[in-house]
Design goal:
This protein has about 260 residues and is an alpha/beta fold. Helices cover about 45% and strands about 15% of the residues.
């Protein structure tokens, strides 16, 4: 069964997350279909892409598929993790990607939409950065993604509380581009895509890649990187990490002990 649906018309590609039973959790299977759709659009010469859930979705995406996270002793968000591959595919896709948001967005799905180029949401959407709720040590490039989407103060509040923020606040702090009514969301995003598609695709693609390279250029010394990796290993080797994953699977609140 396809976990995403795709459409390609007038040089605009549309990808619809279509696994409502698992709230579009970013499983290895769903991510593989998503990346394949982006490659298909790249070959077809797409000039803009819209990434959305099914109309009226209560949950846009519940984030990383927790069932696929290791239960300890291994980096849960290593280079080849599906979420990492998805974010890199979005960031390096030549055409701008518009994230069209209805419903709630969780964890790695927040990073996914922030990797998109433009985010348009309906007023009752929310966004929750969840590593602290699960005991997960988020990875370095993921933190850079968050830092480039909002002020350090906002990122700290989102990361340390794990609490959802509203679309209205996300727009006010510059984390998303537009908040529009549910009845105009589709036409708003289509008009945006058509405007982009009418521009010079080489100029647009080169500016997208320039902005990616420049925005990601954070000077980190080898020593600094190794320190961060050591901190992350301490977390994913901890009792709290194993507890966070187990609690989610057992549908109970986690009890963190700080080691
Ligand atoms: C697997 C799921 C998921 C899911 N994975 O419906 O950013 S990090 O570091 O945290 C990163 C590691 C990450 O992204 O982690 C995931 C972060 N996501 C979350 O914390 C959201 C987890 N989901 C929820 O809180 C609820 O599912 C929401 C509030 C989204 C919807 O609640 P609701 O009561 O409507 P259920 O919880 O009953 O979910 C329906 C089915 O989807 C599964 C869930 O286990 C259930 O499956 P079963 O019916 O087989 O039990 N599901 C939901 N989220 N991230 N599976």
């Amino acid at each position: 069964m396809a976990l995403v649906q795709t459409q390609f018309k007038d040089a605009i590609g549309t990808i619809v997350l279509s696994h409502p039973r698992k709230h579009n959790a970013l499983s290895r299977e769903l991510v593989a279909e998503l990346i394949a759709a982006l490659e298909e659009f790249r070959s077809a010469g797409a000039r803009a892409v819209i990434l959305r859930a099914l109309p009226g979705a209560k949950v846009w995406s519940a984030g990383h598929d927790v069932a696929e996270l290791p239960e300890g002793r291994r980096d849960p968000l290593g280079w080849d993790d599906p979420l990492r591959n998805l974010v890199r595919s979005i960031e390096t896709h030549p055409a701008p990607i518009i994230a069209m948001i209805e419903g709630t967005v969780w964890g790695g799905a927040v990073e996914t939409i922030l990797a998109c180029d433009i985010v348009v949401a309906v007023p009752d959407s929310t966004f929750a950065v969840t590593p602290a709720r699960l005991g997960v040590p988020y990875n370095v490039s993921g933190m850079v993604s968050f830092m480039s989407a909002g002020s350090l103060r906002i990122v700290k509040e989102l990361a340390f509380t794990g609490s959802p923020i509203s679309a209205e606040r996300a727009e006010r702090v510059g984390m998303i581009n537009h908040v529009v009514g549910a009845d105009e969301l589709e036409s708003f995003c289509r008009d945006l895509a058509q405007t982009i598609a009418a521009n010079a695709p080489l100029s647009v693609a080169s500016m997208k890649e320039q902005l990616r390279v420049l925005a990601g250029a954070k000077p980190v010394s080898p020593r600094g990187f190794e320190k961060v990796q050591g901190l992350r290993r301490m977390v994913y080797d901890s009792l709290d990490y194993a507890e966070g994953i187990r609690a989610f699977k057992e549908k109970r609140a986690p009890h963190f002990v700080g080691r």
